[in-house]
Every structure is written in structure tokens, then in C-alpha cells.
Amino acid sequence: MSDHTPKPEELIRISYRPPERDWMDPAVEFRRGTFCYSAAPRHLEYLGLPNPRPWQPFEEDWKLPPDWRRIILEGLKQRLEKFRSFRLFMDICVRCGACADKCHFYIGSGDPKNMPVLRAELIRSVYRRYFTLAGRLLGRLVGARDLTEQVLKEWFYYFYQCTECRRCSVFCPYGIDTAEVTMIGRELLNLAGCNINWVLEPVANCYRTGNHLGIQPHGFKDSLDFAVDDLEQITGVRVEAPINRKGAEVLFVVPSADYFASPHYYTLLGYLALLHEIGLDYTFSAFASEGGNFGLFSSHEMIKRLNAKIYAEARRLKVKWILGGECGHMWRVLHQYMDTMNGPADFLEVPVSPLTGTRFEHARSTKMIHIAEFTADLIRHGKLRLDPSRNDRWRVTYHDSCNPARAMGLLEEPRYILRHVVHHFYEMPENTIREQTFCCGSGSGLGTDENFEARMRGGLPRASAVRWVKERHGVNLVTCMCAIDKATLPPLFDYWLGPGAVEVAGVHELVGNALILRGEQRTTDLRGEPLPAAATQEAPHA
Amino acid sequence: MYVIHALAAVLLLAAAGYLGGSIEGLRTLFGVVLPYAAIVLFLAGLSARVVRWALSPVPFRIPTTCGQQRSLPFLKANRLDNPSSTLGVIGRMGLEILLFRSLFRNTQAEVRPPARLIHSEAKFLWLAALAFHWSFLVIFLRHLRFFLEPVPACVTALHRLDGFFQVGAPVVYLTDAVLVAALAYLLARRLADARVRYFSLASDYFALFLLLGIALSGIWMRYFSKVNIPEIKQLALGLVTLTPAAPAGVGPLFFLHLTLVSALLAWFPFSKLCHMAGVFLSPTRNLANNNRARRHVNPWNYPVKVHTYQEWEEEFRDKIVAAGLPLDRE
């Protein structure tokens, strides 16, 4: 947090009154705390991306290539021809404004260009000017404007102030998806070398080492070994965490934060305990050591470049199917892009749970299932011995992550699990969960420090919903299944609700707590906190 | 202000139509040439646009899922808001197109101190939009009586239904009132809500004024000035049978109405009004969420540069060995 960060009581004074100035006159101020810094040239060079150079968004001269306008317009034309979604979304918006107050960034900032309709108009106005008859003839009257450097700067500011969460698209009568517009907007910016470090450094790391954090094979092994030791200390049970083991039945892919960040780490302990207890024949991969894919926040091509390793590694290790850990945008890629980009996975088999015999028909092509699907099925078939009272110190709510909710529909699996591993579970208000869930405000590569103010503004709706459930039900733990959530919700709640007001955990951390392991000896939960003295089967307080 | 531009444009079109109907020598232009030109523009323009959309590839299957996925048998899937089959998609699209399902979700969000987000109901936009579109459709169908001889029974039945309340003489059509009320609401909302006004373009107001102009001139003719219906039917039949003749006994108000309708048709494909066709093609709504069950093929999928396992193993060989992990190439 920088010194420039306003206090919550300052930040909450949000004015929704639009400025006098016509939105078509670009005016963007790169004020500290609201934007992300540029990507270091070495990352662009490593990835072979255009126009690597030192520059910063707040500088006057962005050192654009001399023919940047031609590059952008040519790129725009190509994408209009390649994506029906994009062309259609450029044409059919009626500006009804139903999307306006659905965006967490608009709600938290009052900046009208954070209304999804105007965010898209930033590109639409250029599209109209150069690609439509009405725009060429009638200009401003139909919302057409020239592509100037100021417009480009505006694109940068607002396309990196959208978390591609798709909430607006739920409410749009035509399903216009701002994520799609932002993704293509960012692709265009990339063509001129305008990208942010918080996206491109993880991308470069991931390309090189296999994971966003740049952890090399020995580091990966060390992290898992450490977790295994830790788990043994806590439970008295020695588990295995096999890596790059050929011939395992299942390849298990998790976001790298799970083995390198907190509170993600406790979820990793939960996975390890669970997979050991059921005796799943699986392996991690030090090469496919990242399920997340920051390529999604850069370009479609980059998604594919980073995602390729998952099927490649499944093939090399001769596994039968793939299991994926808790992550948000990772699952957008795995669910909606992987098979199309890097499939068909005809060398794998339809996932079958070796314990329950359940054939996961809904993943019969991709051959990859979500661990929540896997665990819910185990619980349903009574394969796990669970003691929810071990989680009695928590009063729990569940935050749906944007992508699993709105690009997949993974809504009930985590709730089913939670109802079996905790006694006290309470939902946040209806408008803030499931398909209407509010983003953490830091997704799509925006979870860094320099844009802290923007993040706190974007996370305001989520924090507000948590405040509600905290006041009403005494909730002290927000569970979620997204690595970015786990990293960015704690500072968000500290900011809006006060330090330590609520904590954040993955669903499988609570599974790991409740799970009764054969031969276990434990007095603490996975965080090392003492288990409740009398683990009695108390009914939940409704 | 864009709203003035838009109003001026519609008034200008209306005046032109009125003038065209008043001057003997211009009647053929306004009664025959312009309507034909408008229809040609409408058909050609809209087809071109739809063909263009239809020919653009759908590289990825990207439905916005608004309910539980179909995964495990004991979890109830939401077949309409998150369809996994074609039938489900048809249902979802049906709800979307006929009832504006997504707009129905609309709420209003407001922040109150201390950092509290309050959601309230906001169904009027949905109601007005639905009212406008359905009455417009009914009115359009009612107009078939001018273009068809004999008038089909279903059109006559529609007239009877629409005039169900039997108020006034001639009978007041319910849809006439609803259409004007809905348009007035949509216009008032665009003007009164500072946020919506901020992003509204001249073309947004233009569409509303044009529709209002058409509706009001039509209503004026039917209820107040009582135009010569047989003459108008003659013109309409002439237009559809490609034997057009500009009528003599029709007042200029009719020409005003016809000119605004022609303007609407001509403007339609080049404006946001083409959402009428586009809504059917929206990839976030018209695709089944069966991504992991059925592979979606991207017609332009191309090979990309990747970092292969072999390259990775070469680069980190020492570290892999030191960590005791297996190598592919010793």
C-alpha cells in the first residue's frame, strides 16, 4: 500500500455525477494508485512481443512505433474478421445502460468510463469511424471518433481497469461480454507494446519455467516436500507428493500460488491429505506446474502458448486423465479454451473416479475435471470420513469466483462440499453470489500494489456483501476457489472491514481439516490452530 | 446537445414528408420512389450485415453461464440459464428474445455509508422495453391489412384483440397507447438519468424520436384526421404488387408518416437497430455450455510457438537432477 492510498472513509465518497465533458473527448489522468506499471522490456523480448522499451503510462511520450495507428487499425480489422463475438458486440449495443451499475469498478469509482457500455464504446467509437458507413459520414452524431494517442491511452487505462469478470454480460439483453471486448482491446494494445508488468512477467515466467512465479524444478520439489513435512507434523500421517512420475493415472495441475503463497498453502495441504487418504494414483508435474494462465490477460495466442504444456505433459507422463485444482481464470481457460486450442485430447481417457466409479461424462472430451467435482462425488458416495466440527471455529461464507461461476457454472459443487465439512455456512445476499457474484477487484492480472486504490474500489461490492453476512451471522471466514481471490481478498477485507475482521480460505483447506485420515494424530487444524476441544456433532445455527 | 440534433433531424424528415405530400410533383418521389429505396436498403443492408456476422467464425465456445452446470447427477443443472443441449439453448434464446430474460435481472445498485452496497428492484426498463417491442410487433402485423387483400383472418382477429376494450370510435387500439407510453418512458429515462444521458448518442435519440414520430402521425391519422383508407390501401397494394401509383386523395400527413417509416427502414441496418437480427447470433447466449463434453473447433486455429518439455528439460537439467526428479534424456 502506498502513501497515496486514501482511507476508506475518503474512498467511499464516490460521486456518480458524470463530468461535463463529452465522453468522446478523451481525458485520462494516470493518477497513482489507479493504474499498473508497464511491462519490463526483457519480458517482451523473451516472449517475442513487439516494441520492447522502457516507458511508463504516466509519461507523456509512450514511445509508440511510428506507424502505431496503422498497426492498431490493421489489428482491429483482423479481429473483426476472426471473432463473430467481437464484430457483433461492436454492432448491436443499444446503450440501454442495464450494464452500468453491474460493474464493480463503476460502483466503486463512479467513473462513467467504467460503465461496461462506455468501456466498450471506447473501441466501438474507433470501429465506427474506420469500419462503418454511418461512422464515416456522420462522425460524432453516431459516436464515431478518430484514433488518437489520447484514445489509445484511454484504452490502456480502462482495459486495465476491467477484470474480465463477465458480470455485465449476465445482465445484457444481447449477452454482450465486456471480457471479450477487453481481451481484444488488450490484444490491440499489445500490438503497440502497451502492456503491464503484472501480466507479462508471470507470462514470461510461465513460458520459461512452467509457472507464473518462475519457480524452477528444484524449487517446486522443495515446496512440495516442505508441505509434506508440514502435513506430517500436523496430522502424523506421511503422504507422498509425486512429481513427473510416468504412468500415474492422474495428472494433478494446480495454480502455482497453492504451493507458494498463503493462505493458498493450506488448500494445498488439504489436497495432499485428501488425495493420500483416498489413495489416488496421481502425479504433479514440475513442467506443467501452473494451471493458471495469464495469457488470458494478454492475448488469445498467449493463452494457447502457455496452455499447451498441460496436454503435452499429460501425454508425456502417459496419464489417463487430468485433475485441476482451485483456481478461477485457470478454469475459464481449461473449460472454454483448452480443448479447442490444444486438443483433441484423444490420447487420454474419460475421467473415472477410481473410488466411486463415477464417469465424468461432462468432461468426456477435455478429460479434465475440477477437484470440487471430484470431491463432491466422493462425499456423495460416502467415501470420506468427515468431522465438520473441526471447522467449528469458522462461520463460513462462500465467494464464487467470476470465471467458474459465469464461464462454467460451477456453483453447487463447492456448496455441496462446504455443507459437509462445516457446520456454520451462510450465504451472502443473492445479488452478490453465484452468477451475480462480484469480482475481488483484482482479477485479470490487476492484483498488484501500484493500483491499490483501483483494487479497493473494485472490491467494494464484495467487501460490502461480506460485511452484511458478518454483521448478520458473525461470519469470520470467506471461502473461495481462486488463487487470485486468496491473494487479494485478505487485503481487501482488511481495508474495508478492518484488519483481521475476516479470513480467507480455500474450500479444500476445510476439507483437509474435516477429513479423518487413517492413522492420524492431530490436535490442530491445517493452520496450526488448536482443534475445538469437544468435536461434537452440533446442529448448525440456522 | 445531441438530443437537439436528433429531434431536428426527425422534424426535418417529417417536414420533408409533409411537403412531399402537399406538392403534386413530389408525390411519386415520396409515395413510391423513397419507400422502394428504403425497402431495398433495409433488405440489402440487413442481409449484408447478417451475412457478415454469420460468415465471421466463432473461434471459441464462450457462453455466459447463469446457473448451475450439468456435471454430477445429484446436482440439479439449470437447463435454461446454463444449457448443455441444443434444446436448452433454444429455450434460453426463446426466453431471451420473447421475454428479455437477461434484462429482467436488472437491479439498481447504490452505495451508502459506511461502504454498504444496496440493491433495489429496477424492472421498469425491462417492462418498457418489452411493452415497446411487443406493441410494435402487433402494430406491424396489424398493418398487414393494408398490404393484403383479402385480409387474412388472423390479422382481423389481431385487430379485434387489440381493440378489445372497445373504447371510443374508432376503437382505440391498446398497442397504440402502450407503444407511445413505452417510447415516452424510454426517452424520458435517457434524458432524466444523468448516467444514461452521458453515454447516449445522437443516434440513440434519433431512433426514439423517429419511432415516436411514426407512432404519433399514425395515431393522428387514425383517430383525428381520418385519412382516406381505401386510397392508402390502393397505394400499399400497388407497392407490394410492384404496380405503384401515387394516390391523389391522400393528405400530406400520410406522406409524413410514410417518409418517417422509410427513414426507419433505411436507417435500420446501419444503426444499433440491427440488434433485432444480431441478438440471435450472440455467442454468449446461443451456444451450449458443453465445452468439456464436445470439442469446439476453431476454423483458424494455428500453430503457436511453445516452450517444449525437451527445451525445458535442457534448460533446467542440473536442477532437475539435483532435485532427484526423473529425466527423459539422460
Outline of the structure:
The complex is a heterodimer of chains A (542) and B (330). Chain A is mainly alpha-helical. Chain A has helices at residues 8-11, 41-47, 68-82, 84-91, 104-109, 116-131, 133-138, 149-159, 167-171, 178-191, 197-209, 217-235, 264-277, 300-316, 329-342, 371-380, 402-406, 412-421, 452-458, 460-473, 483-497, 507-514; strands spanning 250-253, 282-283, 321-324, 368-370, 396-399, 477-480, 503-506.
Describe the structure.
Chain A has 22 helices and seven strands. Chain A has three domains: 8-30 and 50-194, Fumarate Reductase Iron-sulfur Protein, Chain B, domain 2; 206-380, no CATH class; 388-514, Rossmann fold, CATH 3.40.50. In chain A, 63% of the residues are buried. Chain A has helices spanning 8-11, 41-47, 68-82, 84-91, 104-109, 116-131, 133-138, 149-159, 167-171, 178-191, 197-209, 217-235, 264-277, 300-316, 329-342, 371-380, 402-406, 412-421, 452-458, 460-473, 483-497, 507-514, and strands spanning 250-253, 282-283, 321-324, 368-370, 396-399, 477-480, 503-506. In chain A, helix 13 (264-277) links the parallel strand 1 (250-253) and strand 2. In chain A, the strands form two sheets. In chain A, strands 2-1-3-4 form a four-stranded parallel beta sheet. Chain A is globular and about 75 Å long. Chain A is mainly alpha-helical. Chain B is mostly helical and 330 residues long. Chain B has a single domain (2-322), classed as Transmembrane di-heme cytochromes, Chain C (Fumarate Reductase Cytochrome B subunit), CATH 1.20.950. Helices cover 59% and strands 4% of the residues of chain B. Chain B contains 15 helices and two strands. Chain B has helices spanning 2-22, 27-55, 86-99, 101-104, 124-142, 144-147, 153-162, 174-192, 194-199, 202-225, 229-240, 252-267, 275-278, 309-315, 317-322, and strands spanning 107-112, 116-121. In chain B, strands 1-2 form a two-stranded antiparallel sheet. Classes of the chains: A mainly alpha (542), B mainly alpha (330). At the A-B interface, helix 3, helix 4, helix 6, helix 7 and helix 9 of A face helix 2, strand 1, strand 2, helix 9 and helix 10 of B.
